[in-house]
């Protein structure tokens, strides 16, 4: 059976894997599974019901970081984990930082409150969004800026899964009108622009923008 990716296209974790699949030119099918409306069969692939998940032959895997590492090891291609054990460990740390620390505020607060809550018929908690933007996100963006250290990517001139993971979170904020301040975080802003210009990501964005517009107009 061909590799199949499950998930919805506005999830930053699904986007992360889609970018990787494109960067590493890995052939796959994509089955749309919406969070919160997962069919029963999906829990056999992703026991917690979360997206993304993959099935590759008999192997069923959930969690974007676990999936990303599996794809790297199973399919080869240009490495997204640097060249040394130390680079790979640093990349995994930054990926984890994006997936858990940045995601908590960028996606699960700013994006969820501005986009998902109104879709469910709820009001945006503007106070939670304001606190995320003014208190929680700046120290995280400052840290990532220090880690970039004026370089094009976290590993210098070599793109890695860390750049993909951080960018994926920033895109969810951009989808609801919150572009990071380029005067305050110029390196991160440039990273976002540099990543957005890559075909692995630019090819995904039109469909995401269309879906945002369609669902937003309902
Ligand atoms: N750490 C996980 C996070 C995945 C995650 O939280 N996905 C969200 C959508 S963005 C989800 O599936 N939510 C539905 C749920 O928790 O039931 C990963 O990297 O894959």
From TrEMBL:
Q: Which residues form the GST N-terminal domain?
A: 1-79
The highest taxon in the source lineage is Bacteria
Q: Which residues form the GST C-terminal domain?
A: 84-215
Give any Pfam family that matches.
GST_C_3
- What is the name attached to this protein's record? Glutathione S-transferase
**Organism of derivation:** Halopseudomonas salina
| Biological classification of the source | Bacteria, Pseudomonadati, Pseudomonadota, Gammaproteobacteria, Pseudomonadales
């Amino acid at each position: 059976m061909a590799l199949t990716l499950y998930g919805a296209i506005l999830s930053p974790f699904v986007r992360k894997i889609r970018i990787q699949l494109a960067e590493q030119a890995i052939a796959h099918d994509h089955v749309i599974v919406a969070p919160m409306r997962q069919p029963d069969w999906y829990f056999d692939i992703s026991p917690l019901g979360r997206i993304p998940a993959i099935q590759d032959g008999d192997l069923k895997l959930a969690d974007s970081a676990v999936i990303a590492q599996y794809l790297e090891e199973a399919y080869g291609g240009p490495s997204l984990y640097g060249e040394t054990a130390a680079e790979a460990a640093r990349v995994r740390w930054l990926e984890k930082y994006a997936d858990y620390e940045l995601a908590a505020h960028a996606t699960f607060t700013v994006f969820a409150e501005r986009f998902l809550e109104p879709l469910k018929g709820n009001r945006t908690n503007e106070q939670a969004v304001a606190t995320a933007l003014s208190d929680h996100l700046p120290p995280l963006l400052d840290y990532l800026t220090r880690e970039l250290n004026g370089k094009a990517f976290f590993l210098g001139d070599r793109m890695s899964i860390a750049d993909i993971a951080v960018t994926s979170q920033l895109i969810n904020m951009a989808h609801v009108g919150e572009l990071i301040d380029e005067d305050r975080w110029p390196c991160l802003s440039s990273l976002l622009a540099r990543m957005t210009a890559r075909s692995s990501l630019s090819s995904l964005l039109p469909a995401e923008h269309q879906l945002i517009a369609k669902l937003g107009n309902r």
